[in-house]
């Protein structure tokens, strides 16, 4: 890996750490809303749709 690219990657990782610790804010955020088959189900119905044990 070229030194320039590694330095950029390293700075990105450091920035991610600052964001994770709450020392910096992310430049952008994405919010996804739940849609699809399992979004309104509860209990065993939800588990069977997601193929997990309940």
The coarse silhouette is elongated
In whole angstroms, the N-to-C terminal distance is 47 Å
Low-confidence spans: none
Helix content: 40-55%
Proportion of strand residues:
under 5%
- Rg over CA atoms: 20 Å
The total number of structural domains is: 1
Oligomeric nature of the chains? single chain
How many helices? The count is 2
| Structural class label | mainly alpha
The largest pleated sheet is described as:
none
Order of helices and strands: HH
The average pLDDT score comes to 79
Total beta strand runs = 0
What does this entry look like structurally?
The chain is an all-alpha fold. The protein has one domain. It is built from two helices and no strands. It starts with a helix and ends with a helix.
């Amino acid at each position: 890996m070229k030194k320039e690219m590694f330095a950029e990657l390293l700075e990105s990782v450091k920035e991610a750490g600052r964001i994770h610790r709450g020392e910096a804010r992310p430049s952008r955020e994405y919010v996804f809303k739940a849609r699809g088959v399992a979004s309104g189900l509860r209990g065993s119905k939800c588990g069977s749709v997601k193929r997990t044990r309940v």
